[in-house]
Amino acid sequence: MENTNNFVSSSELALQEQFKRGIREINKNKNLSAFVFTLGCQQNEADSERIRGVLREVGYSITEKEEEADLLMVNTCAIREHAERRALSIIGRFKHYKAKNPDIVIGVCGCMPAQAHRSEQLKRSYHYVDFAFGTSMLHRLPEFIFGALNKGKRRFLLDSEKPQIAEGLKIERESTYKAWVSIMYGCNNFCTYCIVPYVRGRERSRNMAEILAEVQGLADRGYRDITLLGQNVNSYGKDLEGKPTIADLLNEISKIDGDFMIHLMTSHPRDASSEMIDALASNRHLAYHFHLPLQSGSDKILKKMNRHYDKARYLSIVEELRSKIKGVTFTTDIIVGFPGETEEDFLETMDIVKSVRFDSIFSFIYSPRKGTPAYDMEQVPDEIKHERYDRLCNLQNEISNEINNTYVGKTVRVLVDGKSKNNENVYSSRTDGNKIVHFECARDYTGTFQNVKITRADTFALYGEIIENN
User: Fold this and answer.
1) Quick check: is 261 in a domain?
2) Could you give the C-alpha distances from 284 to 245, 295, 367, in angstroms and in order?
3) Which residue, of 157, 187, 219, is where some domain finishes?
4) Averaged pLDDT, 128-157
């Protein structure tokens, strides 16, 4: 049984259904449209799919042209100051739409307005914004829209101290073959550089039955690529009665029929157990790609980051994954120039990159984030950060190029993503190890698995010839 304190009550959801009916009545025969702008991570993208689902339910069509919209939503990110500044810039340009048409509804949601100072800023300085709310109030969107349409009081709400999960919200998926499935929300790790626990709350897991039903439905509709989402999917279930684990969930998903791949995003090394690795290794839907954020190769810096593992533990996880899952590919996140990082600390990171030989890395220059402990630590000079970042990228580019060239002459199975923007006969695709593969083809195989023989490679992609009629 799930912990009922984790979930929005049925009475609250019923109340929102009343607001939906009210919106449909107000908008009846008006042919209105909505525009949703999304910033940030995959979780924000998944949230926006639910926002669009709600908007469809209450009678709005979805437009890609903001100037045509009768309702404008900005789903914001707060991971860095730059992301917030960009969100405020986007919200700022909506001012003239409201000036032309006072009936337009403008809302802001996501991580940025979950912070009290940003919520207050939106209220006081962006007077044309009708409502703003944090990440755990998405189920109340009908209530906020209904109030705006009735010219009610502007609403600016912060998340509760114990945010809950709302099940059953409609989803308007952007893709017909790739899907995000959130299995949990929030984070308990409190890495010293990260704002997420403060804006998304503490960890709370979805009921396994709800997750399995969502994955089953996607498989039944022919989805080929399903990503299980959470700030730390490895800690799934710790807050639920019976304490099911990510391994339990993976084992149940393995029983679902269908030709689809399962990815995890993101796995924290702190909770990467042998039980989970065994469940991955035995899962027939496994995508042979594992993203395991390192952040730093220095134990001293990892401790300052509050990551709860050391480099020896990290390397042991990599070794276990490689021993149990043949052909697995690795990607990681690395922060360069964290406060207090010395040249010796940085060289330890470089050593791990050389040792593990990641297929690719997502590297970031540390950016001070107000509201986190690292903000007040002694900072590394910008010129040193950039110089180290360049050295790290150059090293990884060499490794990526060497690894990619081992694929030349091999035939790989890929999921076709679609046409190139620059050449309508060139298609982009990905292997089950998340390698990008480009190939020419006169026929559109988007959303299907195909076989491609690799003819050449470079640092960032593979290139090949499709083997048709397979």
Assistant:
1) yes
2) 18, 30, 40
3) 157
4) 95
